[in-house]
Amino acid sequence: MRSAKVSQLQFETSKSGRMKTFILSWTAALIAIAAVLATVAVLQYRWADQASNAEEMRIGSELESLTMKWQADLYNEFSAICIAMQVGPDSGARDNWSDYLDRYVEWNYALPHQSMPYVYRNPDLVGEIYLWETSRAGKPRIFLLNVDKKRIESSSIPPELADLLPGLEANSSNMTRAMSAWTASEPSLNEADRSNARPAGLSEGRNAISGWQFDVRVPALVHPIFHHGSGKSVNADSPVDWMIITLDINVLSKQVLPKLASRYFGGLDGLDYKVGVIATGSKPRTLYSSDPGFGTQDLNAVDSAMNIFRLQPAATGTDAAKAPGSVHSLRRAAWHSFSGTEWFPVIENGPKRELWFLEVEHRVNRLQDVVNGVRAKKLTMSALMLLSLAANFAVLTVAALRAQKFARLQMEFVASVSHELRTPLAAIFSAGENMHDGVVTEESGVSSYGSLIMKQSRQLMKHVDRILLFATIRSGMSRYNARPIDVVETLSRVREDTAPLIREQHFFVDEEVESNLPPVMGDPFALRGCLENLITNAVKYGGSDRRIRITTSLLRSASGAETVAIAVQDHGIGIKASDLNSIFEPFYRGQEARDAQIHGTGLGLSLAKHLADSVGGSLSVASRLGAGSTFTLHLQVAKDESQGPSTATSRSSEGEVK
Known about the structure:
- There is one protein chain.
- 44% of the residues lie in helices and 18% in strands.
- Among the domains are: 88-247, no CATH class; 253-364, no CATH class; 480-653, 2-Layer Sandwich (Heat Shock Protein 90).
- The chain has 658 residues and is α+β, with helices and mostly antiparallel strands.
- Helix 8 packs antiparallel against helix 9 (443-475) and helix 10 packs parallel to helix 11.
- The protein contains 13 helices and 21 strands.
């Protein structure tokens, strides 16, 4: 016995050490897993953000490409007129007024396949062409190139040029000044301000398109020229005259802009985008709108807004002109508002500057919503991947914990079985050894030793049977034959089988069994095995109060189904509430049982639960720590048997009816 206690103590000490090692190792593993998941989460978020940024830049680049091509074609419409008038690098020093008239007439009436096969023509866009003569002494004169009559006519100042001409006259003293006529004309700007306002790369007397400037209010194309017909020699300091080509705003709004919108923003079923060209200033106006009302909203409310005629911040002082001027250096979301490439410097002929904006918005979904949808999709995919990874980690962790727990329970089972088997084997061996050595000589002594051997052998056989039953259950080879069973008869046989154990442990059994209970469905072997396990369990954990109570009752549910309940109650150590969900698991033994050094394999209740389920019944438990436990077996009444009247029979004995 002392050796068994020492072995048990060594086992408990070893188990405590293994548990500490297990806790430490799993704590470290969980910390490592959490760190991995956090790292993966950060990387997934960065990947999703970068992917959505790349998608945004792709969408933005495509839209910008379309808008820039649209702008280039709009400038082609204007530049075709400028090219037709052929103001050369000498700024017209070798031309007279009639030369410009001839060019205009030829360009206006020529057919593409005749004298000008490679020249693009859009004469309808031209309103009128004026020559503003400011180089002569005295009052400036204005002439009209009459293409219909093919002559140059003196003209009065048109109302639409009333604000433009004074500014041109003020900048006609020399070519250098005339080339900067596009800068602000307020008196507060001195020459230094005008020089600082010049676009990058514009040298004195030259710009990207040979001196053509644009007035957005008229609108008109303007170029300073030297008048050869004046008869005077000219140089860089000579005064200049001006060519002014007005544009027909109706043709621009109803022909040119719709054609460009359809070319770059159209699809198979019409325009894929809403397109608008808006002029801002003291009197905002809509030059073109593909949809009624589009273009009147805030510029930030559309997918993309481009300042068509780029103005330098120093010249305009407006926020809109501060957008980047190159589509190749755009940062995230910069494509929503930007300025196009500058071809024509814009003449400012008043204190309130006017800007032209191209506004574009996708007809179905705003592109920002598309970008946000892509970002949400990427983040959702990342979150799902992370959750999947976390779930896999969780499953692996739970599986490992269950495997560790099962391994620990198996070790405890092996230790418990070894003890349970060793005790009867040791008694049998000692009895046999004494009989072999002649210690027992009298017949009564032999009989006593024979009873001892039989008793211990029976106990050993029960342990072996229980282990074999568990192995059969685990292998799935157990088979049961359900049939109607008499409850009273079954309880009587169970009482007989457990009577030796009850007498040996000095327990008293109180029974209250209804004599006329209806038959129940089940397997006789399984039912007896379940009840024997419950009674054995009550004896083992009954404590100092050695009373066991067995009761039966017939229950009827609200639906009319009938069940027979068989309750086995003890008054022993009880079970903690936290252990109630685990007591039917194989090898499980509560801490109170281990502390009380109650030997067992942890298989009794597990086998009882399986046997109860196998006969179509159920097993429930009610317990309170220190006050005992009640296990109740619920069995279905056989349907082909009628229920008779019930009377109660009381028994109270050490396994016998009284």
